[in-house]
């Protein structure tokens, strides 16, 4: 039993080897031009479309997997960001529970979006591409059967062509055996040769018909399936990208609602802490006499570029924070409501003097005297042509008011108006102006108005302009709410 099985196996192997040899011979003959090859241009075009369709589908599958990986990575990044927000969100802040709910809802949205993409896009694409390997195998098999068909056809045609030669040989025996055989035996030999030739032709014809039948069965099926598969690509691509687009639209719509809720919560948090003072470099973080601050009415915001609004006690109004927000107004420990009124009266007097000096006739070159040791001097005399003004040094922080006005003809380019510093301000950056209480500043326009931040002005100290006349090196920005407009 085992020997018979081995014999069958050996016979199958020998048959397969013989087929490969015949196919190799046939291909060589076709390449050399000694044997014709069966051609089907329509089928070749279908095969090219099939290969193109397979390539496009494989690339789409690869890119869709990369998109899903990106969605998963974005999910993880968003989740970590939400967890960080919950971690830094303090218990007494408004909207803590809302932030936690938004974080959980966002996590569920990302998970659902990823899963639906897998179910409605990736799995559908995998099913679509699953039919290509079988068809590709059948196309390769058709190619092999086509070679077998051509080989069998050529063998049968060669035997058919040799039939006439065999008929001539039958009439004239040429072999020594035929010549030596008796007359009665020669007929049997001829009949044997004829029968053998017919058998070979019959076998060749049978193999030819069999190879033709196998080839045509595979060929007919593929001729029907390949065009149908090619036409199905349009509907598949439409359904796939419609599903992706619809899922993405729904996801972003729901995520947009969560983001809007988070934005509203942040606005509420900002309103909760908007009135809390922020520490500024060079200014006290809290006043020494909180009862004085509590006695003042609530501050109102003034529009950008307008003069600082003052309440009945002449206290400047602070401007709400902006991207480059001006610092809050400091209050010295010794300042009272009465002293604030004195400052206002001195400032108004200085404004009247500055305005009156414009009308004076200038007979000689003006001479300006700078008061030295401002913290120690008690009085100072400022010399103006034809006018001598004596000012008091009793300001809130002990500094002198700068009352040296500039003539109308000597005002810097882009001059808008004058302001007087009501509080000291220490610059926190190189583009900011140091202010002492009483400093007069000439406000000029920004070279680029888009660079102006709300609550900040550009200017040069009047004394620096009179002495240097250098607008470029001495012009800086300063907080508007530390000054009041005097001209």
How would you characterize the overall build of this protein?
With 487 residues, this protein is α+β, with helices and mostly antiparallel strands. It has 2 domains: 13-272, Substrate Binding Domain Of Dnak, Chain:A, Domain 2 (Up-down Bundle); 335-356 and 377-487, SH3 Domains (SH3 type barrels). It is built from 11 helices and 7 strands. The chain has helices spanning 2-32, 41-88, 96-129, 132-161, 163-171, 176-180, 183-273, 290-295, 337-356, 462-468, 471-474, and strands at 379-384, 387-392, 415-421, 440-444, 456-461, 476-479, 483-485. Strands 6-5-4-3-7 form a 5-stranded antiparallel sheet. Strands 1-2 form a two-stranded antiparallel sheet. Helix 1 packs across helix 4 (132-161), helix 2 (41-88) runs parallel beside helix 7 and helix 4 packs antiparallel against helix 7 (183-273).
CATH uppermost class of the largest domain: Mainly Alpha
CATH topology name of the largest domain, in short, is Substrate Binding Domain Of Dnak, Chain:A, Domain 2
Count of separate DSSP helical elements: 11
Unreliable parts: 278-322, 333-337, 353-404
Terminal-residue CA separation: 123 Å
Task: Name the helix and strand elements from N-terminus to C-terminus, one letter apiece.
Answer: HHHHHHHHHEEEEEHHEE
The shape, in one word, is: elongated
Radius of gyration: 51 Å
Which percent bin holds the helix content? 55-70%
The chain-level mean pLDDT equals 74
**Quantity of strands, as a count:** 7
Using the 3D structure, state the CATH architecture of the largest domain.
Up-down Bundle
In the sheet with the most strands, the strands line up as 6-5-4-3-7
By helix and strand content, what is the structural category? Answer: alpha+beta
* Beta-strand proportion: 5-15%
Q: Please tell me the total number of domains.
A: 2
């Amino acid at each position: 039993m085992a020997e018979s099985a081995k014999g069958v196996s050996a016979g199958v192997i020998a048959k397969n080897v013989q087929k490969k040899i015949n196919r190799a011979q046939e291909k060589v003959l076709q390449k050399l031009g000694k044997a014709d090859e069966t051609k089907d241009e329509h089928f070749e075009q279908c095969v090219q479309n099939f290969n193109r369709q397979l390539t496009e589908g494989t690339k789409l599958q690869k890119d869709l997997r990369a998109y899903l990986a990106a969605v998963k990575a974005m999910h993880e990044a968003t989740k970590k960001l939400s967890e960080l927000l919950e971690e830094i969100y303090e218990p007494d802040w408004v909207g803590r529970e809302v932030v936690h709910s938004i974080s959980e809802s966002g996590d569920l949205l990302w998970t659902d979006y990823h899963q639906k993409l897998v179910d409605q896009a990736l799995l559908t694409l995998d099913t679509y591409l699953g039919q290509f390997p079988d068809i590709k195998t059948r196309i390769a098999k058709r190619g092999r059967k086509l070679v077998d068909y051509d080989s069998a056809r050529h063998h049968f045609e060669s035997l058919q062509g040799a039939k006439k030669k065999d008929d001539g040989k039958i009439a004239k025996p040429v072999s020594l055996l035929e010549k030596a055989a008796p007359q009665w035996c020669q007929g049997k030999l001829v009949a044997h040769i004829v029968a053998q030739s017919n058998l070979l032709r019959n076998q060749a014809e049978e193999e030819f018909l069999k190879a033709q039948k196998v080839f045509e069965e595979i060929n007919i099926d593929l001729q029907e399936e390949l065009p149908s598969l090619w036409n199905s690509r349009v509907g598949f691509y439409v359904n796939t990208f419609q599903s992706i687009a619809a899922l993405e639209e729904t996801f972003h719509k729901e995520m947009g609602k969560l983001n809007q809720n988070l934005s509203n919560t942040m606005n509420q948090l900002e309103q909760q802490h908007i009135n809390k003072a922020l520490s500024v470099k060079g200014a006290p973080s809290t006043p020494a006499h909180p009862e004085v601050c509590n006695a003042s009415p609530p501050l109102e915001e003034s529009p950008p570029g307008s003069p600082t609004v003052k309440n009945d006690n002449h206290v400047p109004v602070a401007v709400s924070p902006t991207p480059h927000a001006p610092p809050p107004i400091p209050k010295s420990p010794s300042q009272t409501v009465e002293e604030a009124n004195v400052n206002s009266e001195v400032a108004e007097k200085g404004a009247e003097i500055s305005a009156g000096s414009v009308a004076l006739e200038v007979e000689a070159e003006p001479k300006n005297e700078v008061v030295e040791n401002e913290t120690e001097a008690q009085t100072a005399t400022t010399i103006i042509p034809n006018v001598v003004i004596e000012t008091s040094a009793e300001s809130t922080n002990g500094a002198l008011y700068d009352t040296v006005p500039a003539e109308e003809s000597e005002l810097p380019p882009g001059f808008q108006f004058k302001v007087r510093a009501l509080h000291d301000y220490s610059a926190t950056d190189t583009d900011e102006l140091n202010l002492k209480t009483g400093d007069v500043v000439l406000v000029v326009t920004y070279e680029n108005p888009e660079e102006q931040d709300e609550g900040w002005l550009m200017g040069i100290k009047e004394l620096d302009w009179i002495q240097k006349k250098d607008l470029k090196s001495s012009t800086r920005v300063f907080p508007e709410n530390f000054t009041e407009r005097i001209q």
